[in-house]
UniProtKB/TrEMBL annotation:
The keyword Signal applies. Keywords: Signal. The keyword RNA-binding does not apply. The lineage of its organism: Bacteria, Bacillati, Actinomycetota, Actinomycetes, Kitasatosporales. This is Alkaline phosphatase. Residues 48-143 form the Phospholipase D N-terminal domain. Coiled coil: none annotated.
Length: 516
């Protein structure tokens, strides 16, 4: 090819993730005949950025969604659009290792999910997309360790609960600087709440999302947060959902308010919500929804160092109890029979040094009543005591179990106990309940202490309790896990000052967690 290439055609967009675009030409990507055959699309089709997820030793999922008008249904023509992709060993894309063309289909919101295979384990790669002469931001990702690798380390971030209306997603800016290998997101990626006139950042739309287009618009709004977009473009995410991706405190096909949401209407809402979740998450085709059902529980391996079991604590659960007696009903299930068997088998036959469980909701007990008696959150594992207690019994035979949770909008780090009715019972594991990215906003710390400190004597298994916004960072090695509680001073401004609130340690072979 001869002739000059204009500067704007040579410019690579980035996602603000410290990835510098190379001086390469979109014109040079395709043969002239293929370029001529393209039908131009609206400008800014890559407005929602790029992401990667679910890393394997030889592969990773690459994601984008074409949406030139993201808050109004997407703005794409009603046709299939070919999208080229490339993945390389360098950010200048001089050492290409894989590439191809994916189809962005209107029935999936013109989202693209490329399940790349044939990569090398424990390696960093860069990727990008192109369509209609437009280039995506450049993304950076990383594969998991070789299946039989016994050494090394894994840096993992735990995040959850990012409410657009409560604040900016400033913890992600610090997470980007900490450079994790993988981000585990355990639920409440969006909130379904109605727009509030007094909110710091107002939700789009006029009410709660119910239809597919409404859920697409809500996800698209969240994807425009610059810190979230930058983090997605910097490291692979492992995601699961909790309740607010659909409806607060729903259980299976039962909404929070069945008197206001008839069953058929709620099933239609589930169908729309799960499809929008799939369309906006870097997950494999195994997660393509089947109507009001989506397969989300799965297992990821990071060599022989760590096995990550990702749970779904919403689709298969019994309806929540409404009393202490109900919470102890042995027929209640959080996971459902099939997922429960899957998790037990995964733990019992794991070859990994660390057995991690990503659970949307808290597993350790939270006794809310000061003094004698018990008072529990029935939506959490406390509302499903028989099943929780069975797992506590199993944990005594599992190598280094550590639970990673969200939901509470608090940092709550605990020992897991064989029997919470007996404070002297054995410690069988550790749990890190990560605080929220933005939900609850900048909390009144003194009010929090007045409410929660009196409960600590009734919950001696709690090791750390805090109400700042942020995330948890883990350095997983063979001899132990070093954890940091990373917090920010505010989510009410677009920028914040981060700090380490606390450091903790889980020693291999010694159940429980200690503040260091």
């Amino acid at each position: 090819m001869t002739g000059a290439v204009s500067p704007d055609r040579r410019r690579f967009l980035t996602a603000g993730a410290a990835v510098v675009g190379a001086a390469a030409s979109a014109q040079l990507w395709l043969p002239a005949a293929a370029r001529a055959a393209e039908t131009p699309l609206p400008e800014d089709v890559f407005s929602l950025g790029v992401a990667s997820g679910d890393p394997l030793p030889d592969g990773v999922v690459l994601w984008t969604r074409l949406a030139p008008d993201p808050l109004n249904g997407g703005g794409m023509p009603d046709r299939v659009v070919p999208v080229e992709w490339q993945i390389a060993e360098d950010h200048r894309f001089r050492r290409l290792v894989r590439g191809g063309t994916a189809q962005a289909r209107p029935e999936y919101g013109h989202s693209v999910h490329v399940d790349v295979r044939g990569l090398r384990p424990d390696r960093t790669y860069w990727y990008r997309f192109r369509t209609s002469g437009q280039l995506s931001p450049v993304g950076r990702t990383r594969t998991a360790a070789h299946p039989y690798s016994t050494g090394g380390s894994l840096r993992m971030a735990l995040a959850s609960c990012q409410n657009w209306q409560h604040g900016y997603f400033t913890p992600y800016a610090d997470m980007l600087d900490q450079d994790p290998d993988v981000v585990v997101f355990v639920g409440d990626y969006i909130y379904e709440s109605t727009p509030s006139a007094t909110a710091l950042r107002r939700h789009e739309g006029t009410g709660e999302p119910i239809s597919l287009v409404q859920y697409r618009n809500r996800y698209a709004q969240y994807r425009t947060d610059p810190d979230l977009a930058a983090m997605h473009a910097h490291a692979p995410f492992v995601v699961t959902f909790d309740d607010h991706e659909v409806d607060n405190d729903f259980a299976g096909e039962i909404p929070q308010d069945p008197d206001k949401q008839p069953h058929d209407a709620f099933v239609a809402r589930l169908t729309a919500a799960y499809q929008a979740f799939y369309e906006h998450m870097p997950v494999r085709a195994t997660a393509v929804p089947d109507g009001p059902h989506i397969r989300m529980y799965r297992r990821l391996e990071f060599g022989r160092l760590a096995r990550l079991n990702v749970l779904d604590t919403r689709q298969y659960r019994s309806d929540q109890a409404t009393s202490q007696a109900g919470a102890q009903d042995p027929s209640l299930t959080m996971l459902g029979a099939q997922q429960k068997r899957w998790l037990l088998n995964s733990l019992q036959y794991s070859p990994a040094r660390w057995n991690l469980i990503a659970s949307q909701i808290m597993m350790a007990e939270t006794d809310l009543k000061v003094g004698e008696g018990k008072l529990w959150f029935y939506d959490a594992w406390d509302g499903y005591q028989a099943e929780r207690n069975q797992f506590m019994e199993e944990f005594e035979q599992v190598r280094n179990p550590v639970v990673l949770s969200g939901d509470r909008h608090l940092t709550m780090i605990s020992d897991l106990k064989a029997d919470y009715a007996d404070p002297d019972s054995a410690v069988v594991g550790a749990e890190f309940v990560g605080t929220s990215i933005s939900s609850n906003g900048d909390q009144d710390q003194e009010a929090f202490r007045r409410e929660w400190d009196p409960r600590r004597p009734d919950n001696p298994h709690w090791k750390l309790l805090d109400a700042h916004r942020g995330y948890h960072l883990f350095d997983v090695r063979g001899d132990g896990i070093d954890a940091q509680v990373r917090v920010v001073d505010t989510v009410r401004q677009p920028t914040a000052t981060p700090s380490t609130l606390a450091r903790l340690r889980v020693e291999a072979g010694r159940p429980g967690v200690e503040v260091v």
